[in-house]
Amino acid sequence: MLPTLGGGAREESVLMSPIRLIILAVALVAAVLAAFLVRNMAQPTVVSGPTQTVERVVEVEVSQRKVLVAKTDLRVGTLLTPDEFKWANWPESTLNPAYYTQEIAPDAMEILTGSVVRTAIYADEPIMPQKIVQKGETGFMAALLSPGMRAMTVEISPESASAGFILPDDRVDIILTQLIEFSGDEDLPPVMVTNTILENVRVLAIDQTFGDVDGIPTLTGSTATMELIPNQAELVARAARVGTISLTLRSAADAGFNDGQALANETALDDVDSGGRKVMIYRSNKVEAGGS
User: Is residue 49 very low, low, confident or very high in pLDDT (cuts 50, 70, 90)?
Assistant: First the structure.
């Protein structure tokens, strides 16, 4: 027969079973915690909040050359001086063969001085041969004329040309002032008559010199060259012979008047007392048209 355990041994066996269970439970919990910790460490950390964009500036060296450009806006008909030019850096990749470069034409400023602007040039725009007429070239004024038009030059003064404020490519009206002498039964004094003979005329050039008007330094001119069709040029030539011509400056907003063309008053010279034309005759307090 096998010996049986005594009462003390049985009690010890019963007490050891719960302790083993507790140890197993603690080990299990520790294993779960370790697995959770390892899992969290393996995942990327997500940071909430506004994101910031990091800009990176990369400097790239661009090959440049010195190009002759306009210092300021140059209007049509401007007589060029060295003060209108400057040398400016220009990317070589966009260099036009027509540009004046300091490397190829270092004396371009001196060469182009005295030339006339054919097409408007804006500030910092490269100077190109197609936009100017160089001094010495024949027909530089003809280059400014539109097809079918004529250049007509008349004498002006500061008083008859808006005190020097009229510049090339402006639009003006031409006014004729003439002295009409009456013939008839009575000896009547002459009468001054003023008519607008042309409207919206384009000014091609002004013979500009520096001078004084009533003691105030200003820019004045002695002649004005205008763009006209042939019969309008004839009208101005006749008007210049019979009276005094004045120019009035028009607003730039009126450049589209009459589709941009000059408008003539063909009847403005009908009352000139000259051979073959009408004569103003004064009879019985009435003005009548009569023969010469």
Answer: low
